[in-house]
Amino acid sequence: MNDSHLVKVSGVDKVFKRGSEEVHVLGGLDLEIPNGDFLALMGPSGSGKSTLLNLIGGLDRPSEGKVEVGGKRIDKLSDRKLAGWRARHVGLVFQFYNLMPVLNAQKNVELPLLLTKLSKAERKKRAALALDIVGLSHRTGHYPRQLSGGEQQRTGIARAIVTDPTLLLCDEPTGDLDRKSGDEILDLLQALNKEQGKTIIMVTHDIHAAARAKRTLHLNKGQLSTEAVD
Amino acid sequence: MFNWISQVVSVTRFSILSLPQRKGSSAAALLGIAGVVAVMVGVLSIAQGVLKTMQSSAGDNNAIVLRSGADSEMMSGLGGDDVRIIAEAPGIARDDSGAVSSPELFVIINMPMQSTGTDANVPLRGVQASAMKVRESFKLIEGRMFEWGLNEVIVGKGAREQFAGLSVGSSIEVGQEKWPVVGVFEADGGLSESEIWVDAAVLQPAYRRGNSYQAVYVKLNSREAFDEFKDTLTSDPRLNVKPMRESEYYDSQSTTVYNLITGLGTIIAIIMGLGAIFGALNTMYTAVSSRTREIATLRALGFRAGPVVISVVSESLLLAFVGGLIGAGLAWLAFDGYRAATLNWASFSAITFAFDVNIKLLAQGIIFAMLIGLIGGLLPAIRAARQPIAQALREL
C-alpha cells in the first residue's frame, strides 16, 4: 500500500432493498484519501457514513462504481480473498468494542493473528506489544466484563493495530464512552496517526471528536461536502 | 490449509466456550436428544434380547429335525418309527446309552402373566433323558428333577419369573389333573428357560398323542457332520423330514418378532427424532442469533465463512453427542437385563427374554443423536455464514 492516495472511491452507488422499495444511500460518490490522513466522516443518521466505511473496509460491496485501496480494486475480490485482504490490511474499531466475551484482553487482541502463520509465542509477544501501546499491559488477563468501557475500547484498538495494518476504520469509537474516556481514545488515535503513520477514517456524530481529525467531511443524502449541511 | 484449520479450531473453540451463556436452550436440546436415544435404544434392546435368547438356544453342533414342510415344532409331527430311524443316522454323537437324540413333544397351555394377570401361551415340552444331553447348558437351579413316569414338571427360570403359579411347590392344571412343579432350571438364557418340561411319556397320553412326537433334537459329532446327517435323512424313502442346524432354525423363529420390534423401534425413533431435530434447530438458531454480532465480528476480522459453518455444526454435534451419551447411558441403566415376555409369532407361544442393551445399540443410538445434531445445526450454520457482515455488525 504505497500509493500516495491510499483510498480511491469512484462513482460509488449503494442501493439497499427494503421489501420492494429501493433506498439509495450513496449516489455517484467520489473520494480520495491520502496515505497518513486522519479523516472524520460526519453526517446525520442514515446519511451513509457507516455504509461508506463498510465499503472502504471491504465489509460490503457497492451497487455501482469502484473502491480501490492501496491500488487494489477490492470490490471485485471474491468473499474468500476479501476476507484475507481485510485480515492483512484493515484494522476495525467498533462503537460497542465487539470483543469476544469468553476471551481475556490478551486473547482478544491475538484473534487477528490466528489468521497468520505466526507462532504462538510470536502472537503472544505482538499482542502484548499492542496492549502496551494502548496502555493496557496491566490488564492483559482481564475479561471484557472486568474492563471499563474505555479499557474495552482500548483493547479493541489494540486488536485493530496488532497486525500492523495501514488503514484503521473506526465506527463511532467514542460513541459509547463518557467524555474523559472518549478523549483518551481520541488521544490514542491521534498518536497512532502521528507517530505510527496509520491512515484513519473515523465515523462520528461528535464535533468534539471530529475536531481531533486532520480533516472532516460531511455526508448528506449520499453526497460528500466539506461543509456541514443543516 | 493450516490457516483454514487453525480458523476452524479457533472459531469452534469460541462457540464451545460460549455454551454456558446459552445453557437453558442448550440443555433443552440436549435432554430432547437424550430422550430420543433412550427410547430408541430401549425399544431396540427388546429385539436384541429376543435375538440373543434365540441365539443362546442354539448349540454349535446341534440339529433339529421336523416334518417336511413344517416351519416350527407346532406344525410338525413325527411318528415313533421316524424317531427311531432318525436316531440311527450317521453323524449323531453317541454315548453309553446310545445316540444323543432327543425326541420331544411340544404343546401349549394357558398361564396367567405375573405382571398383568392376562393369559399367555406357555410352551409345555415333553422330553426324555437325552434332552439334557443335547442341551449342555441345562442346569437345575432349584428343587429337583421330575420323576420319570410321574405327573411332575420342572420350569425354566424365565417362565417362573414371568408367569404366575410356577414356583416350586405349586402346580399347573393339565386337563382335569394338577401336576406339581418340583424344580427350576436354567439354560444359558436360551429359549428353554421360557418352557415347562415334563416326561414325554406322561405328556403323550395326557394329550392323546399316542407314540408321536413333534421334533427330534440331536447332538452331532461336529459341525461338519451336519451335511452327511441331512443327506442321509432327506434321501431316506421312509422319512419325510426337514433337518436344520439349530442356529438356522432359531434364526428363522426369531425373524418375525425381531423385524416387527426393530421396525417399530425405528419408526418410533424417526418420529421422535424429527421432534428432536426441531429442538436442535431451535437451539442452534437461538445460538446463532445470540452470537450474530460475535460471528460478524470474526468474519469482519478476516475469518472465513467455512469455519463459521463448521463451528456452529460442531457445537450442535457436541450437544448431540453428549445428549446421545446420556440417553444411551440411561437406556443401559434402565433396560439392560430387564426381563419380560413376548409372543414368538413362529410358535404362537410366549418367549421370555432379557432386554439387551449392547455396544452395537449404544453406538447406533449415539450415531442417531449425531445425525439429529448434524441436521439441526446445518441450517442455522449456513444462515450464520450467509448473513451480510455489515448488517450483522449493527445487530445488538
Write the layout of secondary structure elements.
The complex is a heterodimer of chains A (230) and B (396).
Chain A: E1 5-18, E2 21-34, E3 38-42, H1 49-56, E4 64-69, E5 72-73, H2 79-89, E6 90-93, H3 105-110, H4 120-133, H5 149-161, E7 167-171, H6 179-196, E8 199-203, H7 207-210, E9 215-220, E10 223-225
Parallel strand pairs in A: 3-8, 3-9, 6-7, 7-8
Antiparallel strand pairs in A: 1-2, 1-4, 4-5, 9-10
Helix pairs in contact in A: 4-5, 5-6
Chain B: H1 2-17, H2 23-57, E1 62-67, H3 80-87, E2 94-95, E3 98-99, E4 101-112, E5 119-127, H4 130-134, E6 139-143, E7 153-156, H5 157-162, E8 171-174, E9 177-186, E10 196-199, H6 200-206, E11 215-219, H7 225-235, E12 241-245, H8 246-290, H9 292-301, H10 305-335, E13 339-344, E14 349-354, H11 359-386, H12 389-394
Parallel strand pairs in B: 5-10, 7-9
Antiparallel strand pairs in B: 1-11, 1-12, 2-3, 4-5, 4-11, 6-9, 7-10, 8-9, 13-14
Plain-language structure description:
- Chain A has 230 residues and is α/β, with parallel strands linked by helices.
- Helix content of chain A is 32%, strand content 28%.
- In chain A, α4 crosses α5 (149-161).
- The longest helix of chain A has 18 residues, at 179-196.
- Chain A is globular, with a radius of gyration of 17 Å.
- Chain B folds into two domains: 2-55 and 253-394, no CATH class; 69-239, no CATH class.
- The interface between A and B is medium-sized, with 28 and 26 residues.
